[in-house]
Design goal:
Blueprint: E1 5-8, H1 11-15, E2 26-30, H2 35-44, E3 49-52, H3 56-65, E4 70-75, E5 78-79, H4 82-85, H5 101-104, E6 108-112, H6 116-122, E7 128-132, H7 137-146, E8 152-156, H8 165-178, H9 191-203, H10 207-214, H11 216-222, H12 230-234, E9 243-247, E10 250-254
Parallel strand pairs: 1-8, 2-7, 2-8, 3-6, 4-6
Antiparallel strand pairs: 4-5, 9-10
Helix pairs in contact: 7-8, 8-9
C-alpha cells in the first residue's frame, strides 16, 4: 500500500516525482532558508505573482515576455549578477528582507534558486502545490485540515544535493500539526513522516538553537554579515496568516 502521508528529504527524492502520479495529492514545499520564506514574505508585502523557474536562462526568457517583472534569485546563496547570467544583474537576491513593500508591491517576480524553485516545479501535476515556511505554518496546517487533504507529500528542498536539517524540522512541525488527520489509519503514514515529526519533537521549543547546532546552511548564513539576519527572520513562527499556491505557472496568495 502506498503511503498517503509522506516526507521527501532530498533533491533526488523530489526529482523522482516526475515518475509518480500526483493526482489527488497536496504537495507542500519547504525551503526554509530561504526560497519559500522569501516567497511568502514577498506576497505578504504585496507582490502580485511569483514565477518560480529552474534555470537562469528560463528566467531571462520569461523576463522578455514580462518586461516589467523583477528578476530575483541566487546561486551559491548570493544574488545572481551579470557574470553568472550572461549580462544581466538580477534585481533581487534570495534574502526575504530585500522583498519590502516598497520594492515588490504590485510587481510580478521571476525567481530562480538553487533548490527551492526546482522543488516547486517537481510537484507539477499535484492537486495543490503550496510553499511552506515557519512564517505561515499554522495557516498552512489549517488549510490542509479544512481541505481534508487525503494524500499529503511534504517536500524538503534541501541544500545542493543533500537533505537540510531546517527543512526537515519544518516538515516535522507541519506533520505534528496535521497528525490527527492520519493517525487513525497508521498504515497510511510513511516512516519518513514519523522521522520528521520525531526530529521536530526532540528539538522542542528551541528551534533557533537546534538550527545553530544541526543546520550547516543556518551556520553558513550566520557567518555572512549581510545575510546573518535572514536566519532569525525565517524562523519567526506564525507571523503570516496567508497561504499561497503554485497554479498556472505562478505562485500567488490563495485560496
Amino acid at each position: 500500500m502506498e503511503s498517503q502521508f509522506e516526507v521527501l528529504f532530498t533533491p533526488a527524492e523530489f526529482a523522482a516525482l516526475a515518475g509518480r502520479d500526483l493526482s489527488g495529492a497536496h504537495c507542500v514545499v519547504f525551503d526554509v532558508l530561504r526560497a519559500t520564506s522569501t516567497m511568502m514574505t514577498a506576497l505578504a508585502n504585496g507582490a502580485a505573482r511569483i514565477f518560480p523557474v529552474r534555470e537562469i536562462s528560463q528566467a531571462l526568457r520569461l523576463r522578455a515576455e514580462h518586461p516589467a517583472a523583477l528578476l530575483a534569485g541566487e546561486r551559491d546563496g548570493v544574488r545572481i549578477l551579470s557574470a553568472r547570467s550572461g549580462g544581466v544583474d538580477f534585481d533581487l537576491g534570495n534574502s526575504p528582507r530585500e522583498f519590502t513593500p516598497e520594492r515588490v508591491a504590485g510587481r510580478d517576480i521571476i525567481m530562480t534558486t538553487t533548490n527551492g524553485t526546482r522543488a516547486l516545479q517537481a510537484c507539477l501535476g499535484a492537486t495543490r502545490i503550496l510553499p511552506g515556511a515557519w512564517l505561515n505554518l499554522g495557516a498552512l496546517a489549517r488549510r490542509l485540515r479544512s481541505e481534508k487533504a487525503a494524500r499529503l507529500l511534504i517536500i524538503c528542498a534541501g541544500t545542493y544535493d543533500e537533505a537540510a536539517y531546517e527543512d526537515t524540522l519544518a516538515a516535522g512541525a507541519l506533520c505534528d500539526l496535521v497528525w490527527a488527520q492520519f493517525e487513525m489509519e497508521p498504515d497510511r503514514i510513511s516512516d519518513s513522516a514519523h522521522i520528521a515529526r520525531r526530529i521536530y519533537l526532540e528539538a522542542g521549543s528551541d528551534v533557533e538553537g537546534a538550527m545553530q547546532r544541526h543546520s550547516r546552511n543556518a551556520r553558513r548564513l550566520l557567518s555572512i554579515d549581510n545575510l546573518r539576519a535572514d536566519v532569525p527572520f525565517c524562523l519567526r513562527r506564525d507571523v503570516l496568516e496567508a497561504t499561497a499556491e503554485l497554479r498556472d505557472g505562478s505562485v500567488a496568495l490563495g485560496p
